[in-house]
Design a protein that fits this description.
The chain is an alpha/beta fold. The protein is built from 14 helices and twelve strands. Helices cover 42% and strands 15% of the residues. The strands form two sheets. The protein has a seven-stranded mixed beta sheet with strand order 2-8-7-6-5-3-4, with helices on both faces. The chain has a five-stranded mixed beta sheet with strand order 1-11-12-10-9, sandwiched between helices.
């Protein structure tokens, strides 16, 4: 009698919503000795990196780079345009909307939250009402999360700009694109976004450690009128520097820049429109499978309407502790890591073990998504978790017919 083999040996698949799968080319670009930070290729790379970041964000304006995660980008953006005591409006559709609000509170902002729950997009009418009630224009910015990574909802950022314009309200529109940039369509200039923040570890396919704040001239005018901005967070010298250290207020994140240069080359070689289209097809394959599974069991997509789902991340739930059971099984038995259910239940609530998420952002392709879905079905079958038929066929049809 032979022992039951474990099938996790081999290359693992990290299917969490960030850090995303890192391309070998990016990792190889980073695998080098420390470079000279005073002369040479690193300095020569910076103008191209800045220009190509703007191409991904679809903006002709400005970008500042920070050594830090998405929370650093939040604080950097807010520090440049919100003084203590000034009000911000935060339409929240998940944990990260509330996180953006908490960061505003942390720098002394007066935060007004419109909570739309964890399974619905922003209601533009309610935002319009809040702006209409702000007769004295005390609201200085609207903090809108494009894709909330916890709930997987995608919000209508262009619609928020329309509401601001219709109200004649001067508040800045600030968008969190940490989960969405390079995955879901985003048009900074065409949508009228004043400030946008993102990180390097999701659609940009670089290990965590850098974040970016994009801003237009309107936001720069607000920055210029600020009573003070700390030297480190100030985006002006970072966006106008000529020496390498000025871009980073000190030593550059040298190896991240090599990885970022390669990642941007990959994005632009494919074409940003094609990047968006690839994410859309792969997301639809996942949705088709999950919708089929849901016909015969407890699996449910958190966002019911496809039009409100991100193509970068999918939030799901099972019953009881089956979400955690499934995650543990596929990781231990197959080498497939699914994302935890973040922010959908309180830490001490047993319901948190029902939730989990799939990350399908950045460096992913059709065979990877089919492997992800096949691994999930194997796990549900092994654990006795009920599911409806035809899921893998449905996903294959989406990919075959794209």
């Amino acid at each position: 009698m032979t022992n039951r083999p474990n099938l996790s040996h081999g290359r693992g698949y990290l299917a969490i919503p960030g850090p995303s799968v890192m391309p070998d080319a990016v990792l190889q670009a980073m695998h080098r000795p420390a470079p000279n930070i005073y002369a040479g290729e690193l300095i020569d790379m910076m103008p191209g990196i800045i220009a190509d970041l703007k191409r991904v964000a679809r903006t002709q304006h400005h970008v500042a780079i920070y050594i830090g995660n998405g929370h650093a980008a939040w604080e950097a953006a807010l520090s440049n345009v919100i003084a203590p005591g000034e009000r911000v409006l935060v339409p929240a559709t998940g944990r990260f909307g509330h996180g953006f609000a908490e960061m505003a509170e942390g720098i002394g902002g007066d935060v007004q939250i419109l909570d739309f729950g964890k399974s619905s997009p922003m209601d533009l009418d309610r935002i319009a009402q809040a702006l209409a009630e702000d007769k004295d224009h005390l609201i200085k910015a609207v903090l809108a999360v494009h894709v909330d990574t916890s709930s997987s909802v995608i919000n209508d950022i262009k619609g928020v700009r329309g509401v601001l314009d219709a109200a004649g309200h001067p508040a800045l529109l600030m968008a969190d694109c940490i989960a969405s940039l390079g995955c879901d369509r985003f048009e900074m200039d065409d949508w009228g976004v004043d400030v946008m923040v993102t990180g390097c570890q999701k659609g940009l396919m670089v290990p965590p450690g850098c974040s970016f704040v994009f801003f237009n001239d309107r936001a720069q005018a607000v920055r210029d009128a600020m009573p003070r901005v700390s030297r480190y967070w100030d985006w002006t010298p970072r966006s106008t520097g000529t020496e390498l250290w000025e871009f980073f207020n000190g030593t550059a994140p040298t190896h991240h820049l090599y990885g970022l240069r390669t990642a941007l080359d990959m994005i632009h070689a494919e074409g940003i429109e094609q990047v968006w289209a690839r994410h859309t097809v792969l997301a639809r394959a996942i949705w088709a499978a999950c919708e089929a599974w849901s016909t015969g069991g407890d699996l449910r997509l958190n966002i019911t309407d496809r039009a409100n789902r991100s193509t970068a991340v999918t939030s799901l739930r099972l019953s009881g502790n089956d979400g955690t059971r499934l995650r543990n099984w596929v990781e231990n038995e197959l080498g497939l890591t699914l994302g935890i259910g973040l922010g959908m239940a309180e830490p001490d609530d047993p319901a948190r073990d029902a939730y989990f998420r799939l990350g399908h952002m950045g460096h992913v392709n059709g065979q990877m998504i089919m492997a992800l879905l096949g691994g999930m079905q194997a796990g549900m079958s092994s654990l006795g978790i009920a599911y409806g038929p035809g899921a893998l066929d449905a996903a294959a049809e989406v990919i075959a017919g794209h």
